[in-house]
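To whoever is on call:

I kicked off a structure prediction for a single chain this morning and the downstream step that reads the tokens threw a length-mismatch warning. I double-checked the sequence; it's 244 residues and nothing unusual in it as far as I can see. Pasting both halves so you can look.
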Amino acid sequence: MTGELKLRGKVALVTGAGKRLGRAVALRLAREGASVAVHYRKSAADAEEVVAAIKSAGGSAAAIPAELTSVIEIQRMVQSAAHELGRLDILVNSAANFLPSSMISTTEQVWDSALDTNLKAPFFCAQAAAPWLRRTKGVIINFADTGGILGWPGYAAHSIAKAGVIMLTRVLAKALAPEVRVNAIAPGTITMEGDAPELEAEFIRQAPLKRSGTPSDIEDAVLYLAKAQFVTGQVLVVDGGRVL
């Protein structure tokens, strides 16, 4: 835990928190003092590792399974998180898939999977969490993507879904104000442990800042939006300037 504990007494629910950026965000929120509900779908062992790491550092956490394409399971997940940890202050919609598909190759199955996971799920997570967040004057942080801004022809359904997350963020910010703030992060040029070296090299080439991003860059953005009391309806692009 950090000395300042900026989020002491807060409870966060992070979707897709067993792996990659979701995992990093869950661990960072815990280091800042928040209790964390660690959502997973299939990655039970990974989620339990996150919970164990948080608890070993003196924090509080619970692993909660849910299939986010099911509204009933989303509702159950949010209820479980709030009941197990006592309240809900922060919802981080980070669960996503990343399915390659062009306009020609996109099938109905790929379209439904991309839209259900990347757009439908964040909406219904927000809907289920809203009553709890209104009580605590909480915050929702959605994960968009630079693909939702630039538009990637090779990831058509994904880009469309993530563009929808940007509009979802704006609509929710208006609908849930003034009690709940809603913002989004659009990560780009982020590499993680295990990613191919050529991926990082390509990201460095594309970014004006001439480096790839790290999970800590995204963690910092989440922490900022969790605390920024006069910011709502915004998309914070964290990409080293790539969208320029």
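Update from on-call: the warning came from a stale cache, not from the record. Cleared it. Sanity check on the structure: The domain at 11-238 is CATH 3.40.50.720 (Rossmann fold).
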